[in-house]
Amino acid sequence: MLLNVIEDEEKWLAEGIASVQQNALFMHRALDANNLRDALKYSAQMLSELRTSKLSPHKYYELYMRAFDEMRKLEMFFKDESRHGVSVVDLYELVHHAGNILPRLYLLCTVGSVYMKTKEAPPKDVLKDLVEMCKGVQHPVRGLFLRSYLVQVSRDKLPDIGAEYERDRDESSVMDAIEFVLQNFVEMNKLWVRLHHQGPGQDRDKREKERSELRDLVGKNLHILGQLDGVDLEMYRENVLPRVLEQVVNCKDEPAQYYLMDCIIQVFPDEYHLQSLETLLAACPHLQPSVDVKTVLSQLMDRLSNYASTCPDVIPEFLQVEAFAKLSSAISKVIEAQVDMPIVGAITLYVSLLTFTLRVHPDRLDYVDQILGACVKKLAGKPRLEDKRATKQIVLLLSAPLEKYNDIVTALTLSNYPRVMDHLDNETIKVMAMVIIQTIMKNSTCISTADKVEVLFELIKGLIKDLDVTTADELDKEDFEEEQNSVARLINMLYNDDPEEMLQIIYTVRKHVMNGGPTRLPFTVPPLVFSALTLIRRLQAQDGDVVGEEVPTTPKAIFQLLNQTIETLAVVPSPELALRLFLQCAEAANDCELEPVAYEFFTQAYVLYEEEIADSKAQVTAIHLITGTLQRMQVFGVENRDTLTHKATGYSAKLLKKPDQCRAVYACSHLFWVDDQDGVKDGERVLLCLKRALRIANAAQQMANAARGSSGPVTLFVEILNKYLYFFEKGNPQITSNMIQDLVELITEEMQSDSVTADPASDAFFASTLRYIRFQKQKGGSMGEKFDSISV
């Protein structure tokens, strides 16, 4: 069916074009012969083809353009009176006798254009005559093209300021031009709207498409008005805009109202919009409820904000006319008037208003907060948003201040900012929280007060605690880790030079992150602990305590807080991480010379090792951490140190694998010989540890031989040899050159044994050790003498 209609239209168009061309050919012959009578006859027959009702607007336009091109030639003929011998006045009367009204009016418009050019009659009278006579064609499509032709041929004859046809710089002549264009605009708009109501209901979609194709014909009138030099600001504000808006509102047609409001915004200067803002905005609430007012207002605000950006000198005018107040009021009225407006539409309006405000009045934070408050009011009493389009607009609304000010601190001063976020769904709250953190990272913003930290962590609460019952299995591991690492980096950026305020920040952060649950605490507790340890070292450097109004800022008080905080990790459970943090705190307590505190942290670490850490690899790592930290401790007295070192060596000897036992035991030898601490140089116990390590290494070789038929590499013996050399150099009297010599010979024999598995790495390690011994022997001096008795 549709295919048949298209084929019929093509056929009708082809027939119409053929007829136009044929009559145009006869008209050309008449023009060449200067035969006015035949020229009028064939031009009228050619124009009669435009009387068709069978063509769609698109096809009708093709036919119209063929006729239009021919009418330009006829107009040139009419201008040359010498060719046809008839005065333009008589010619104007003559074409009144054309048979059909449509050809007659096209000819009248053509002759009228020539008539105005001769200045034999006031343009005002001719224009008024033509625009009134065109009312004789009420068919929407034919009438629109006829009036479009009228505007086209009379455009350059309008009595505008500075134009050839202005009457002695008379203001009334400009009004004549305006009146003509406005009257033609009103009639064309009526024809355009009427097209909506013609034909059967089932063809409505087709008619709307056809209407859309014709809209530029109507808008051309407003474009001409915008180009008239005589339409100054006063004329526009007092005459043009009210008349146009009256027609827009009264037509009560949704497509027409939307298009014409858009035309007004686009064709007239920005300055005019600013100075007539109240009049333009007053029309918005009176538009049909289905009109997309949000887009209209958004385009208006975009134009005004661009105007302010390109011409900063005009910003005082924005304040003078109270542009923000008027736009805000208009948006409120539109939202109230259109009760069925979806929530996304209202939020889009607030986004546009906020964008306008940030570009025109960036210093007015009260305006920004007022917009956010209006959004909160609109969302009040409604369930959390689930409409993705609405949540996207809210994200834009909340992101705009961050992007403009590049400073989250500014956003934190906006009281309504967190209230808007409360209306987002949980996933969008997370997205917005990441945007906030990324802004802080990008600009290296320092949040320096506890109050601001409180507001900030309320904003990012979607990342630091569970807002719903989502299980850990439902979370995307990679995304979750990225979010938590971002929170950890944020915690590290919180800082204040004042220790008291910094402690308040730490307490505030702790209050929030402790609600994070077992999956989040391993990410958020470590940066909190290190932030507190940094504060402790600052206090230690100041050599004094700061007493605040609420919490005394002393290292001891902070250590108590840390103890409670890290204990939660053990419950989570995350014992390996908790053990590391206890050891970090013990080292900090050592720097503060707080022996009881340091001992308590070590005790906690030992309890975790005994009760919570069961994995053999984790135990090996933990033992080496404990040994390394304990070796650096200087605060312990003899009794406490002996207790802790005894425990550490005991744990080392009980590891599951013999190689692990061996390495942990010889590492413990460093606990009894510390270079920078005169009181801890117990050579005998160092030797005991090394001998014990040798026995374990030998046992490991025997077990390997029994289990696999080979003893395995001699790496452990080479490692122990290096420990012997270390303590021999450091002057441990219990380590003698004979012991080293015996160990070198033992390793050499083992490597030559058939039962030992060849290992290039072990061989290279042993060769490097022997080279080192030779180097020390050749060095000379006291060290050379010590090594001289070792034969390699």
UniProtKB/TrEMBL annotation:
Q: List, alphabetically, the Pfam families matched.
A: Vps35 (PF03635)
SUPFAM superfamilies registered for this protein in UniProt = ARM repeat
**Principal location:** cytoplasm
> Where is it located?
Cytoplasm; Endosome membrane; Golgi apparatus, trans-Golgi network membrane; Prevacuolar compartment membrane
What GO cellular-component annotations does this UniProt entry give? cytosol; endosome membrane; Golgi apparatus; late endosome; retromer, cargo-selective complex
Question: Which biological process, per GO, is one annotated for this protein?
Answer: retrograde transport, endosome to Golgi
Q: Does the keyword Cytoplasm apply?
A: yes
UniProt topology in membrane = Peripheral membrane protein
Q: Which UniProt keywords apply?
A: Cytoplasm, Endosome, Golgi apparatus, Membrane, Protein transport, Transport
Q: What function does this protein fulfil?
A: Plays a role in vesicular protein sorting.
Family assignment? Belongs to the VPS35 family.
Q: Report the protein name in the record.
A: Vacuolar protein sorting-associated protein 35
